[in-house]
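Minimal example, chain plus magnesium ion.
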Amino acid sequence: MGMISGSVAKSPEVKPARTITLLGATGSVGTSTLDVLSRHPGRYRLHGVTAFASDAAMAGICIAHRPTVAVMIDEAAADRLSTTLRAAGCPTRVEQGEAALEALGRDASADTVVSAIVGAAALLPTLAAAESGKRLLLANKEALVMSGDLLMSAARASGALVMPVDSEHNAIFQCLPATSTGICTKGVEKIILTASGGPFRTTPLEALRVATVQQALAHPNWTMGPKISIDSATLMNKGLEVIEACRLFDLDVSDIEVVVHPESLIHSMVRYVDGSVIAQLGRPDMRTPIAQALAWPERIDAGVAPLDFTEVAGLHFEKPDPVRFPALRLAFEAQAAGGTSPAVLNAANEVAVEAFLAGDVAFLQLAELVERTLVAAKSAPARDLPSIIQADRDAREIARRELATLN
Ligand code: NAD
Ligand code: MG
């Protein structure tokens, strides 16, 4: 929008750079985040970066961006990284292990933390960021799904601003009015989460039985890490996102509807009681929600080409098929059951996806394994962090046991 103002051109306001910690810097979202940051060097400074074990990728990041700290989980990778950085004359300090990761999430030298680690491993550093009043850019969804109200209430207590980066939730954020007290959901009739439908949207059930890892990883619209790609193929990703939306916007599962939209141009919508529907559109490129969440309430260039509507062939919508994609129902049920059920769903799914990627279970057994674990695990109140961690651990054990009986 053009600003209408007086005729005197003002010099741009000089603001101190925001300092960023990027958890999961070597991943798909991590790489997109670094791309956006590198377009605005005066505006953002990278304080900390983390990865599990990919030290070669991490060395490249450190040499290019010169962060103060780099944390590796894997010890041998941390040692290799130290050696490489020393030889390159890069001043980044290398730390190692989960305690260092959590401490970096809390580190006051950064005012913004991007949580782009995959899976439950993000829980402690993300919670640390939420507890320390930062701007928290949340790409990771598993921590939010498993944590009950813990993460959001920690953010409320500390004054942390949680900005959703997951494209659907970022879209919803943009479709809801922001007031002085936060995002307002008054008058919302339904949140409509769009789903691409994944690589198997039109694949018959019989063919799904023999679907390969390679087919499941080949997402039609998005390039993402392996775990979320498999979740997109089963629609468990959409299930996790239903729960994520409930947590982020304080909604009930009955407030949420899922619509398959194969073009992935509408990233989600909000339908209001007066009949209005507000949608957010854009190319399927994570740099858009990342840039929106980094700069909000301002807007910055994300390197994404403009969307040309004359080149859009059409926008299509269909209902998700509950028979071929039972994972979606399981997520709705787990959230309705409440307590530790979403943590159980998430843990069982992580075990199942790992087994599928290793070639140990068939595609249709992914949801079966999750369902069996949900039936076998007792749901308890998600009272505090220890009860959530316990539920996660127990569910993984049950899922591994069920896995052994499947084959
Ligand atoms: P990815 O697999 O590409 O990257 C994961 C990152 O986490 C890597 O840096 C890896 O080193 C690190 N990591 C992995 N295991 C770890 C562990 N045990 N401890 C510490 N660090 C660990 O994943 P991704 O596709 O970038 O997704 C990251 C998160 O963002 C996921 O929760 C995903 O659901 C969410 N997300 C991703 C996309 C996308 O387009 N990729 C979109 C929306 C949401
Ligand atoms: Mg998403």
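The longest strand covers residues 44-51. The first helix runs from residue 28 to 38.
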